[in-house]
Design brief:
Elements lengths: L6 E6 L6 H17 L3 E6 L4 H8 L3 E4 L10 H9 L8 H8 L1 H10 L7 E5 H6 L7 E5 L9 E3 L18 E6 L4 E8 L2 E10 L6 H5 L4 E4 L6 H17 L5 E8 L9 E7 L9 H8 L4 H11 L5
């Protein structure tokens, strides 16, 4: 839309494993939009969100939800039914991106190099190694590294406690790619840049992502120019392959180890990247000359429905 909306509902919170992160993202968006004198109603999303939105009748919904329901096409479907334009990707792209095995199939079909992996029943994973170590065990449809475990060489322990595993009967197991952690952000049809992440943990887990000082971000990533361009191209191709809109963030590994492949591998794409003070997309946008308020306003301009 060409003019500022009169009323924006910022959807945050919800009931996924990423609720707390979403509340922080949403609060940052609310503050940014209010600084631009936009009328904002923050909504801590519950199961009655459709009734609340139907009564509120906002011009646009800014989707600051993360994880299940907010990122997997469900809330997008609710907004489509209500006819409320919303930010970020639509129903199909959101659902594909959240289902990691499905997204991987589509990425490989368009020539994107992905980490090798397969889906196993969790009992198989608990019974013993399903592939040579090191490997990564992750939920099929969670984000923010929720539930992700890396099984390193020499490990004789189960990757997770069966009683504490709340992410479904099937898990995705992927080959662990050594080297550097990279991420690239897309805004519309533009790649904002590439960041290298150096975690103070053994890998870039949930705590490292959202605790200040637990990881260092190097933006732009200090990698060879050809690899930097390759990472940007890969992120844009992934964004387009599943029909994303708005902003997305693609996470990659660059195996530059002495005996490694020298290749970049796509791990996954995030259609609802974080907007917290330590999040990567706002940082990459700032690197590209776009401040946080302008990024939020652009997402409102890009909001749509029936897509």
């Amino acid at each position: 839309m060409s003019v500022a909306p009169q009323h924006v509902a910022v959807l945050m919170g919800g009931w996924s494993a990423e609720r707390e992160v979403s509340l922080v993202s949403g609060a940052a968006v609310v503050e940014a939009l209010r600084r631009r004198n936009i009328r904002v109603t923050p909504i801590d999303v519950g199961h009655n969100v459709a009734n609340i939105l139907a009564g509120l009748k906002p011009d646009i919904a800014f989707n600051a939800l993360h994880g299940r329901f907010g990122e997997d096409g469900c809330i997008q479907g609710v907004l489509e039914v209500l006819g409320i334009p919303y930010t970020h990707s639509g129903v199909l792209a959101s659902s594909i991106a959240m289902d990691k095995p499905t997204a991987k199939i589509l990425f490989e079909r368009v020539g994107i190099r992905c980490t090798q992996g397969s889906v196993f029943h969790r009992d198989q994973v608990l019974a013993g190694h399903v592939m040579p170590t090191p490997y990564v065990v992750k939920p099929i449809n969670e984000g923010s590294s929720v539930g992700v475990k890396v099984v390193f060489d020499g490990s004789n322990r189960a990757p997770f406690d069966s009683e504490a595993w709340h992410y479904g009967d099937h898990v995705l197991v992927e080959r662990y790619v050594p080297g550097r952690e990279l991420t690239a952000a897309i805004m519309g049809d533009r790649t904002l840049g590439v960041t290298e992440i150096r975690s103070h943990h053994r890998f870039f887990d949930y705590e490292a992502k959202y605790t200040k000082g637990e990881a260092e971000h190097f933006c732009p990533a200090p990698i060879p120019a050809d690899k930097y361009q390759q990472a940007m191209d890969m992120a844009l191709k992934a964004h387009q392959a599943i029909g994303c809109r708005g902003v997305s963030r693609s996470d990659m590994r660059y195996d530059d180890t002495p005996d490694g492949t020298g290749e970049i591998y796509l791990m996954e794409i995030n259609t609802q990247p974080g907007f917290t003070p330590v999040s990567l997309v706002p940082e990459l946008a700032a690197h590209a000359g776009i401040d946080f308020e302008s990024l939020c306003l652009w997402l409102l301009e890009d909001a749509s429905c029936r897509r």
